[in-house]
Amino acid sequence: MIYFDSDYMVGAHPTVLERLVATNALHTVGYGRDQFTADAKSIILEACGLSHGDVFLLEGGTQANAVVIDRLLDHNDGVIATDTAHINVHEAGAIESNGHKILTLPNHDGKLSAEDIKNYIADFYRDDTHHYMVRPGMVYVSYPTELGTIYSRKELEEIQSVCREYDIPLYLDGARMAYGLAAPEADMSLKDIASICDVFYIGGTKCGALFGEAVVTRRPELLPRFVSLIKLHGATLAKGRLLGVQFATLFTNGLYEKIGKHAVDMAMKLKDGFKAKGYPLYIDSPTNQQFFILPNEKIDSLRAIASFELWGPRGNSHTPVRFVTDWATTETDIDTLLANI
Amino acid sequence: MIYFDSDYMVGAHPTVLERLVATNALHTVGYGRDQFTADAKSIILEACGLSHGDVFLLEGGTQANAVVIDRLLDHNDGVIATDTAHINVHEAGAIESNGHKILTLPNHDGKLSAEDIKNYIADFYRDDTHHYMVRPGMVYVSYPTELGTIYSRKELEEIQSVCREYDIPLYLDGARMAYGLAAPEADMSLKDIASICDVFYIGGTKCGALFGEAVVTRRPELLPRFVSLIKLHGATLAKGRLLGVQFATLFTNGLYEKIGKHAVDMAMKLKDGFKAKGYPLYIDSPTNQQFFILPNEKIDSLRAIASFELWGPRGNSHTPVRFVTDWATTETDIDTLLANI
Amino acid sequence: MIYFDSDYMVGAHPTVLERLVATNALHTVGYGRDQFTADAKSIILEACGLSHGDVFLLEGGTQANAVVIDRLLDHNDGVIATDTAHINVHEAGAIESNGHKILTLPNHDGKLSAEDIKNYIADFYRDDTHHYMVRPGMVYVSYPTELGTIYSRKELEEIQSVCREYDIPLYLDGARMAYGLAAPEADMSLKDIASICDVFYIGGTKCGALFGEAVVTRRPELLPRFVSLIKLHGATLAKGRLLGVQFATLFTNGLYEKIGKHAVDMAMKLKDGFKAKGYPLYIDSPTNQQFFILPNEKIDSLRAIASFELWGPRGNSHTPVRFVTDWATTETDIDTLLANI
Amino acid sequence: MIYFDSDYMVGAHPTVLERLVATNALHTVGYGRDQFTADAKSIILEACGLSHGDVFLLEGGTQANAVVIDRLLDHNDGVIATDTAHINVHEAGAIESNGHKILTLPNHDGKLSAEDIKNYIADFYRDDTHHYMVRPGMVYVSYPTELGTIYSRKELEEIQSVCREYDIPLYLDGARMAYGLAAPEADMSLKDIASICDVFYIGGTKCGALFGEAVVTRRPELLPRFVSLIKLHGATLAKGRLLGVQFATLFTNGLYEKIGKHAVDMAMKLKDGFKAKGYPLYIDSPTNQQFFILPNEKIDSLRAIASFELWGPRGNSHTPVRFVTDWATTETDIDTLLANI
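Predict the joint structure of the above. Result:
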């Protein structure tokens, strides 16, 4: 069986695992106050080109989103996101459980448009009744999006510009950041993202770590007493150095970039194969998630050798499907798959 | 330097780490729906002597407490606990952040007394004004307690009896369960605890795992839709099998018991050494945490070779201190320490 | 100046006020345990044709919605409502502040359709990923809606039928109930509504009371310990009898019906007048809110003699507006207004 | 029957009721944006000697406490209060339901001591573990306390001084403010309280209004976007002018002072009567709540003519009881009661 269900199906990249093994017997203080974590933070800040920022290491994406958004919003603020945003659809109401509404706008290939945001906020402030409504308090984007697409620098800067106009933070969910940075059409580096977004997180779980996400900000004043808030959310890892070790490794010797590039290379090869056979794209994704519309019989036969997800309800004759690659996907996996389509 | 600060200073027990390494490259489905997790649940249920129960694997103790208590309590219910309880003192308000009051009763060597609980609840229901007060909705105990002490079977059964009288669940926090079970004076097995408590968790983080806690219940109807609640709390691990692999290993070939026994053996040796030198106990703990009252000069000199915590503010001449052992503590560590006291 | 801004611009209906004055000096116990409140509950239950139900008197509509929905939903449940629903737009995030997502469906003239609800829920349960999504836990409708429209009995029964299929409660917000019941096209009585909905509230604030809403249920088991939850929400009125006196008066001698009928009569007269002059309706409402599309110059000139709300942003040449009548609107008010359009 | 159960057993003071009747038919805008409310705010600020402050009118005490405390505290902050504080005992967990822990200190005749507060906070900041604990984020006092006692100016200033040292706000619950100000031993005026506390509320419900509490602050920057937060808590009264009318009346022509003085005069007469008969005081209260320890037979016989509360569980031979006076208590009531003791 070849696995294309998701990018969290295997453990850690071997280099990451090696470091965990090598440091296992060392004694360190807990709760992320150790040297490994301090090192990881320095390395990440440097990779982000930030001299004054801060970094916090958390365990998972839903958790990172929940804690960051809970910190950035005031009581009756909401977060602007697309209707397809992960926080809106697949986090079991984590954001609302902390008291915050998600203010959804239509997605354009999975992305928010600066114009939609601007119109929404301008309309909100139209008259005084806004005091009795949910204030748009921040903007949430993801990179790549749920549909594998990525913002261009221009698109993200336009959103940043609206955020600045209304003095609200721009937050980017980078659960699959490695694959966005490695996309052929990407025109932003990690440093660009770090300088445009107020807060963002660099995904580890889906990009080579056992688990872990690194929340980064160039404006630490936006996350006051964040260490306490993380604890309050039950998100403080006792052996915090596990996160430090993993992220230090991912951001040493270009490992994170390599992981991203490999998976995207595999994804492009996969896409080319499907396109060559004439299967229509469900959406044209430049990253490690690939979406096609397949005949149902083809889906059924492929499932004998490969696992992958239906993207929505099964249609009468055709159904959209998703294939996901990661650092562990091999050329042989792709070749075998393509030989069967 | 020898480390006695806490029991989360090193990584995983080598046997646990080995299994993580051995299974790292395998593909599994996510979110704890994998076979490793299923196996761990079966093994744990068997170790607990439960045929009908359920098990949920979470990442940390504060998280486990928060999610379980959030599930067990109705809106304006509170949880009865000692004033020294971990949830009351060291979890940054996690329980309250989910809307629940902690109803504190005085501790007796770190423990609740059944009589105090009974009196408190009886007084609560004395008249109709209780509708405007916080209802005692469950009881929280820990095993061992924050002070290393353990409940006798009789003590725990008396508490269970009060809980049954008022039809509220008894929940046990077993962050250091291994060390409680291994205490020389312990008169309860894991099966006893599983049959007396409605819900409890078996600590992994402090007992040989990289991280992880196993929530166990013999009454699954008390935790409806718990999988969704875990996700809502940001506590779902994408690569859930990491927890499954670890717990399956801990509960195979008696590893969990061995870890507990070793640490407690080391702790007893340590206690005997301090007692032999005439240092008074701060409290007489039968588990892996040992508390003494030391002269301040002795504290200062010892710190050159060993790290450990002050247990409260530094006194004028003497201060209580805590030494914690774990699976990684060696006889040499203890000998070296004792040679210097 | 004639006032058509809203239906909460004057105090209480004179008959209600009289009773408050007449009972002012009496001593009663607090918190709604008095005889006036008991009487009001009996009278309301009888008016609703319920022999086994329960009634709770609260102070305002946002409060009633928040407390009821908080009670009806489990932790990660959401409430299905239209995008235009009051809870979704004009309650400052009260529902989310209690941890619950509003699951919006498109409105059809302000109303939910049973088919949309059914499709949404069926799709939700399509596969196992729903465990990580917000479960649709109840349905919220309002009667009349924000646009003044009302459900037919058939429409509401179809929604009830979907709710029963999935065993979730149907809740009706009756802030303007009096005007819905009095609509010429209404084919449901209060008893019908009480038998179709699981929980609903009868609006007092906008229908003749100083303030107050009566939450009614034919299934008291859906609102366990509701008295405590009301207190927890800060919604318990110390002098609870104020609500009892008002509701008992509203439901004695048909006052509530009279109030509704008068306001709707005035609204119909108003609508006829605008229609006769050729102004297009923004929506055809059979209740006390009337919506027209007026030329901007007409809006500006009318404002010299009457106050009313723009319904959305001012257009280039024309803008939708809303006129609201209530028990205090006089025929002279309408005549004067119509003489100026 | 004579009623001494509480101070919320009758309606509004006749002068307040008269104004409500006189203004009933007027049209005003809703939500507290009307002229009556604006006038009430000005009058209250003037009575408080504040030129820059702000005032918000709410419906009840538990609600006022919940909304204010929710605003003043950051996520994992707690509020310091006595163990006997209303928020700790009689508000059904309203504070915790908003996510905040109540940090209780022992009461001294119902009051907090500045020294206890100072020691608690100093100990909290002793070492770095405080990041994982609940931060003391404000201080809550009540005036008078639950036991009818009042702070001296010196006591309150000492508490203020500790609050300033740690830069946390001092909040005063004045549910029975009128009776505290009127106490013979009171050495603070309303202006003093307004200048010492950061935020406080002036009780209306128990002091002559139908309902209502006025939150006052000399530091409006402490309550940003408070109008929205009030709405989010379901605490916005549609006909907000009802609160404006009442408070404007209470603070015109010294009515609030008169109400306080009358009730306290009656209470002193009542206390003198009991003392003259040799009944011991449970506590020596200078305000409208009086506490005695009575023989159980006396309690039983008195209940034939008067209603009052037991203050705790019934004792074997004697039980503490509470008698409460208000604006409606007459000299005849007191004479009749005393004739029977």
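Chain B touches chain A through 52 residues (CB under 8 Å).
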